[in-house]
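Collaboration report, partner site 2.

Our partner group contributed sequences for two proteins of shared interest, and the home lab folded both. The records are reproduced in the order in which they were received, starting with the first partner submission.
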Amino acid sequence: MQKEKRGFDHLTRTTRHGVGALAMEIKVGRKKKGWTQAELASRTGCSRLTIVAIEGGKPTVAIGHVLEAAHMVGLDVFGGPPTAITRFERGKEINAIFPSRISGKPTEIDDDF
């Protein structure tokens, strides 16, 4: 994967390689199905240029488009629909435990009487 030219240096190497790997898997999956980029775009509900960006590993592409393209070519990013639903529901349960807002610094208590 090529290094991004538009200021994505803040992304970790792991993230950059992960984006690149997913991009390549989507591209290979599309080719295995014998689809053009335009056909995948039509099935995904986006433009061909968005597919070009996805396959190019651009980190600015909307995550919904990336995940939909992955699903269309047969990649189970989350282990298939039942697992994705289970993970989502479990995430909601865990999220409910935490406060809705987290402040940056804890309030310091003056207990020096």
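Second partner submission, folded after the first:
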Amino acid sequence: MRTVGVEEELLLVDPDTGEPKALSAAVLTRAVHDDPGQEVFQAELFGQMLEVATHPHTGMAELGAEIVRSRKEAARLAGEAGGAVAALATCPLPVTGSLTQQERYRWMAGQFGIGTQDQLVCGCHAHVSVASDEEGVAVLDRMRPWLPVLRALSANSPFWQGRDTGYASFRSRLWARCPSAGPTELFGSAGRYHEQVSRMLASGAVLDKGMVYFDARLSAKYPTVEIRVADVCLRAETTVLVAALARALVETAARDWRAGRPAAGHSVSLLRLAAWHAARFGLNGDLLDPATMRPRPAPEVARALLEHTREALADSGDAALAEEALAALLRRGTGAREQLGMLDRTGSLREVVTECVRRTQG
């Protein structure tokens, strides 16, 4: 069975005011003090962010348990440094990022200018194992039209710089400003994929393979496909749903490839429109149907993803989990909808942040 692991980027905030705090260095110092060999917690672009990575798992129960455990440990470490963690894909309050002083991040700030300041955003990346680069690229080609659905399910960023953006996932709109971000054309082979990456590096617009920010890519570190479209999810159970569906998408695409079924030939222009629909509406509007690229109610498209991956979900033992988690998400709403509801109840974006701190830990 394919393994799956996730990386979550969490926001570090003041527990009383909800304002972001540049505490990542202090948190990482404590993490290394407790466990010198730890690889769970890592620095990110800004000091107000903390990356939390799981180990690869074959079972969703084990993955979910590690996500919850890692979030609680991140909260403990942040608390010792005078802060708290919130699974927010953008900060509702006005914020100026405090750049982490690493050479790579300084290069980004110089290269991308003011656009770098807009990247204080938190995503969730799912790594799903593949047998080879050839299989991985075949998967990338066949997953393309379904990735916006994962974005819609995870949408958790309605606010930016103190304002309601009107988007369910404004993080993804900010991220789209990166020159290498977004959907990709059909590659057709691993050779063509690597040739494209080499040409991008030769352009000088990006520094290394880690800055090739495709919606889904071959990992430069692990034998995995890395799916990068999701916001960090407010609730750990939504992260598990995204991971289960990501693995099922990879397995379904690999089976289609082995059976000789071709990838859908949708243009990058249409895929960008599908990504915009997902960012704008989340699950509260229309998404573009991955088969027809025509508008269709978001809950129907979400259920179509379940149907598309049903055989793979059943074979991995995740069918019931995915059905139940999706039904609960459709009833409750995305993290974006929950945040908007908090603002309606409290009238305060600070209260939104402090409530999200509590929900991050379940």
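Feedback sent to the partner group on the second submission included the following. The longest strand covers residues 4-13. The mean pLDDT is 97.
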